[in-house]
Amino acid sequence: MADCEIAVVGAGAAGLSLAHRLCAPEPGWGPVPSVTLVDAPPGPARPPERTWCYWEAAGGEFDEALSAVWDTLRVRAPDGTPVVGSPAPLRYKMLRSTSFETLVAARLDAEPRVRRLTAHVDEVRDAGDGAEVRGTTPEGRPVTLRARWVFDSRPLRELPPARTRLLQHFRGWHLTTEQPVFDARVADLMDFRTPQPARGLSFAYVLPLTSRQALVEYTEFSAAPLGEREYERALHDYARRHLGIGRFTVTRAEQGVIPMTDARFPRRAGRSVFRIGTAGGATRPSTGYTFAAVQRQSRAVAAACRQGRDPRPPPAHSARSLAMDAVLLRALDTGRVAGAPFFTGLFQHVPMARLLRFLDGGTRWTEDIGIGLRTPVRPMLRTALELPWLPRRAHPEAGRGTAGRSGPGGPNGETPR
Questions:
Q1: Which residues does 208 contact at the CB level (< 8 Å), separation at least 6?
Q2: Whole-prediction pTM value?
Q3: Which residue among 204, 237, 259 closes a domain?
Q4: What does the pLDDT look like over 178-216, one tens digit per residue?
Q5: Last residue of one domain, picked from the residues 306, 340, 375
Q6: What is the DSSP letter of 266?
Q7: Do 147 and 131 form a contact (C-beta atoms < 8 A)?
Q8: What is the residue range of the signal peptide feature (predicted)?
Q9: Distance of CA 105 to the CA centre of its chain
Q10: Which residues contact 82 (CB under 8 A, 6 or more apart)?
């Protein structure tokens, strides 16, 4: 006999979001199932505090937990030329993981059919008509949890084979300056006045909270991450040369790596075991944004569970979006397309709200064609024609990702972005 109907392994963005939606009051969804949320004990298996960024209209369900919201966004070309626009009716939102966890935990605590279990998970496997989660409590006691369905959000140890694999790697400072420096009304999504690598791209990302407080981040899309000293040097250089910051204090730092790959992520790991979040392909390959896709995926899974349907997670991104991402990643990796001019050109020629919908997979195919014509057509077409003939290869060292990223420059990606 099962201990619960549904077990959710991992209490990051994906696990918490699914547990939250499984007990949400939704008309027509049927009764709330019994849910056990399994979280790792404090330590290396539990992700550190991180920041998620995403865009949506005002009045979102997590708005009460937001750290900041911006209605004006800016991108700077390598020569410093600014592209400023409004994403209306969308807004760019910053959500700290601790605030999200506090909000969702309060909602889960009020639901009697949800319980939480702290354990190191060693194995998730099919068993009989359901599945088993086997692990060890913080006290060292073995524990076995049986459920009809198990949803596993733990990062993969190895990524599936892919034709292209880049890494989005970053380090960010939460800093406070002595003098007013920032315009708290404007968020810098991408500032390309950073030294560009031979292949891929780099940029800075500035999210101001006040005139003296901001998250300032250095990000690269390239083949390998940097050492901490190199990130620190890049951040110091950017802060001094381009932000004009004098004396400042770093109150907290964030660092992470997000695989950017055209790998196919299986969402089913057994008859009764499924992968969700980054492990289930929720991260957008071309940007690293994840949080909004996690919400779409968790809502669909929760609806299926409560309506008695097969709860296999749906694809987080459309086949068309993934195909376009595969072309872009290959074009960047081969050096056929220079990343900084590519993204700058998109923001210069495509209305910001439309471009953000495109990055979130919300545009129609006719809009996608129009956006595609604003890219370097010949190298992109050449890349599209060669992709079907390229083999998919394993990249075992790339399995270490972060669930904290939210998007390009956005401190993630469950991720993350």
A1: 68, 182, 183, 184, 186, 187, 214
A2: 0.91
A3: 259
A4: 999 999 999 999 999 999 988 889 999 999 999 999 999
A5: 306
A6: -
A7: yes
A8: none
A9: 21
A10: 74, 75, 76
